[in-house]
Write a structure and sequence with these properties.
Aminoglycoside 3'-phosphotransferase, Chain: A, domain 2, 2 domains, two-stranded antiparallel ribbon, 13 helices, 345 residues, 5-stranded antiparallel sheet, 47% helix, alpha+beta, Phosphorylase Kinase, domain 1
């Protein structure tokens, strides 16, 4: 249990006690309830709100990855857009006034279950992505940030993040040198994004799809994607690529997907699509994305690795720090990027 999660519990309890929660399904203001720590991420603290047999998730926002002052409202509205998918948590209540607590608060559906298992749940995850990506949503009437030039957008983000690592005295010189080489390669490789610009297929994408953000319930036979703090309006290849690259699969597990596993995953996704053009082009779209998603994972890890040690990160998690440190290994980095930078070697 993270220190911030426990330390904030009393203030969140007081906030809940002083709020009108009549919008919550089956909520009875006259009945007792209790609040329990549930999970802590890098930018949010999650609590379980129990009243009898009814459970809800109270999500307390402590930071943003997208530079938004209205981070919790952005996530709430994204969940509203996704209601019809049937594979995301239902949003019930949001308060971003920050009058009685210095954080935005979202209350949403609690979904019992366990994290996704890459060894058994690939096809289920593929079908889930297809349901989300094929939702009928008005492109002109949604609030989501647009992914205008995806490879350049990722490159620019990574360049900013890596600047923190490059300018720190903490990073090893050989790692800095290699990552400068990778960044230079990515600067040229991003020109391939003309494929996405000239042939767009925009939809709601999650952008943060590691196994811990999925909830599998074997008894009900359901799979949900539950973390929606950074959704965009962009190309579906982002989610499919991010889901399968090593920087994602190794984040919470020890799994590294093989070529055949990724092929089966994409085949299941294609089989769930009704749009023939997306079905025919998705493999190439994902191939172009893969090195950029690896670069994004490494760049964020390098930045956060420095921030953790300088006391600049809002919420800290030891497992996260250990994983970031393992990513900043030269052999690991070469295994990620050399096949893209030097194919055929």
């Amino acid at each position: 249990m993270g220190a911030s999660l426990q330390a904030t519990l009393v203030s969140v309890e007081a906030f809940v006690a002083g709020s009108d929660l009549g919008l919550l399904p089956a909520w009875d203001a006259a009945r007792p309830w209790r609040l329990e720590p549930l999970a802590q991420g890098e930018y949010n603290m999650n609590y379980m709100l129990r009243q009898g047999d009814n459970c809800y998730v109270v999500r307390v926002n402590a930071g943003t990855q997208i530079g938004r002052d209205d981070q919790i409202l952005y996530e709430y509205r994204a969940l509203e857009l996704l209601r019809a998918s049937g594979v995301t948590p239902l949003p019930y209540w949001v308060d971003d006034r920050r009058e009685r607590i210095p954080h935005g608060v979202l209350i949403m559906e609690y979904l019992p279950g366990v994290a996704l298992d890459y060894r058994h749940d690939l096809e289920r995850a593929a079908r889930l992505f297809a349901r989300i990506h094929c939702l009928s949503i008005d492109p002109e009437r949604n609030h989501l940030i647009r992914e205008e030039r995806p490879l350049s957008m990722t490159y620019d983000e990574c360049r900013r993040l890596l600047t923190v690592f490059f300018e720190s005295e903490l990073g090893a010189p050989d790692i800095k040198g290699y990552m400068r080489e990778v960044l230079s390669w990515a600067n040229e490789a991003r020109l391939r994004e003309c494929y996405f610009v000239s042939d767009p297929w925009p939809c709601v994408i999650n952008t943060e799809v590691n196994s811990g953000n999925f909830i599998w319930n074997a008894e009900r036979g359901t799979l949900h994607l539950v973390d929606w703090e950074k959704p965009l309006w962009g190309d579906p290849s982002q989610d499919l690529s991010h889901f399968g690259v090593p920087t994602t699969t190794l984040w919470k597990t020890d799994v590294r997907l093989g070529t055949e596993q990724r092929r089966r995953f994409l085949a299941a996704y294609q089989a769930a699509l009704s749009d023939a053009h997306l079905r025919d082009t998705i493999v190439e779209r994902v191939r172009l994305r893969d090195p950029f998603n690896c670069l994004r994972g490494i760049s964020w890890s390098a930045m956060a690795w420095v921030s953790y040690q300088q006391g600049e990160h809002a919420l800290k998690n030891q497992d996260t720090f250990d994983k970031m440190r393992s990513y900043l290994d030269l052999d690991f980095l070469r295994g990620l990027f050399d096949p893209h930078m030097h194919p055929g070697r």
